[in-house]
Amino acid sequence: MAGRVQGKVVFITGGARGQGRNHALRLAAEGADVVLFDICHDLKTVAYDLASPEDLADTVAAIEGTGRKAIGIEGDVRDFSALEAAVDRTIETFGKLDVVLANAGISGRAPGHEMAGWAATAGTNIVGVMNTFHAALPSMNSGGSAIATGSFAALKPGGIGREPSSQAYSYAKRALIEYVKRLAAAAGGLGIRVNGVHPTNTNTRLLHNDQQYRAFRPDLEHPTREDVLPAFASMHLLPDVPYIESDDVTNAVLYLASDESRYVTGQFIAIDAGAHLKLLD
Ligand SMILES: NC(=O)c1ccc[n+]([C@@H]2O[C@H](COP(=O)([O-])OP(=O)(O)OC[C@H]3O[C@@H](n4cnc5c(N)ncnc54)[C@H](O)[C@@H]3O)[C@@H](O)[C@H]2O)c1
Fold first, then answer.
1. pLDDT tens digit sequence for 95-123
2. Residue 252 belongs to domain spanning
3. CATH code assigned at 169
4. What spacing in Å lies between the alpha carbon of 186 and ligand 1's midpoint?
5. CA-nearest residue, atom 1 of ligand 1
6. Active-site residues: which are they?
7. Per-residue pLDDT tens digits for 204-244
8. Residues with Cβ within 6 A of ligand 1?
9. Residue 225 belongs to a domain
10. Domain count for the chain
11. Residues 100 and 219 in one domain
12. How far away, in angstroms, is 198 Cα from ligand 1 center?
C-alpha cells in the first residue's frame, strides 16, 4: 500500500535527533526520501548538548533501514549559503524537493552569555527558519509544503522568561506566526503551502535539561525530573499531561506534509494539551 507521503522528498533541519528525527523516521515509513540538516555540535550559549555527528549518522542509518534513501548534512541554519548548498545537493540527488520542515531550534539559557544568547536564539529560531524556507522554496513546485516548528511560547502572553535568550525564544516563535501567514500568501499562487505547528513541552533534550528544570522550579537549587513534572502539567488544560511525545507533533507534521492537507495554508496547529485555552479571560 502506498504511504501517505509516498515518493516525496523531504528536507528537515534539526533532523539528527528529537522531534526532527521522529518526523524523519515517520515520513520515511510513509514513503518519503529524507535529507537531514543539523548543526551537530554544541553552542556555548546553549546550556545543554546539541546533536552529535553520531546522532546524524544513526538517523540516516535508521531511515535507510526503512528502505528509503537518506542524506545527512552537517550545517548551521544561521548560514544561508550552507542551506543553499544543501538544497542544491538535494536536487542533484533526488531531482526535486517537495516538503521542507524548518524544525531546528534552541532554548539557550546558558548563564554569562546574555546578548550572545539572544543572538544565537533569534538567529536559529526565526532567522534560521527564514533561511531554510528562502533556500528551499525557489526549488519547490506546485504541491509543495513548507512547515515551521513554532512553540506554545508563541501563544503565551509574557513569554517563557525574562533573561535575553528566553525573550528571544518567545519573540522568534511569535514572529513565526506572522511570517508563515505572509509567506503562505506569497507562495499560494504557486501552489506551495506554508503552515506550522506549536508544540507544548515535548519529551526531548530541549525540555529535559538542568537549565530548563531550574526555569520551571526557581525555588529549588537542583530540581529533578520528578520535581518539575507538576509544574509542567500545570500548564495544560487536559489532565495529567506534563509533556507530549514527539509522535504527537509528528502526527500533525505528517498531515501538513501530505496531500491530505492540500487546501490548508497559512495555519498553525497547536499540539498543546489545551494550554492556550487556560489563557482565556
Ligand atoms: N522540546 C520542547 O519542549 C519544545 C516545545 C516547543 C517547541 N519546541 C521546538 O521544537 C523544535 C525541535 O526541538 P526538539 O524538542 O526536538 O529539541 P532537540 O534539542 O532534541 O532538537 C533540536 C535539533 O536542532 C538542532 N539544531 C540546533 N541549532 C541548530 C542550528 N543552528 N542549525 C542546525 N541545527 C540546529 C540540534 O542539534 C538538534 O538536533 C525546536 O524548534 C524547538 O524550539 C520544542
1. 999 999 999 999 988 888 899 999 999 99
2. 9-204+245-270
3. 3.40.50.720
4. 27
5. 202
6. 169
7. 999 999 999 999 999 999 999 999 999 999 999 999 999 99
8. 13-14, 16-20, 38-39, 50-51, 76-78, 103-106, 124, 128, 149, 151, 199, 201-202, 204-207
9. yes
10. 2
11. no
12. 13
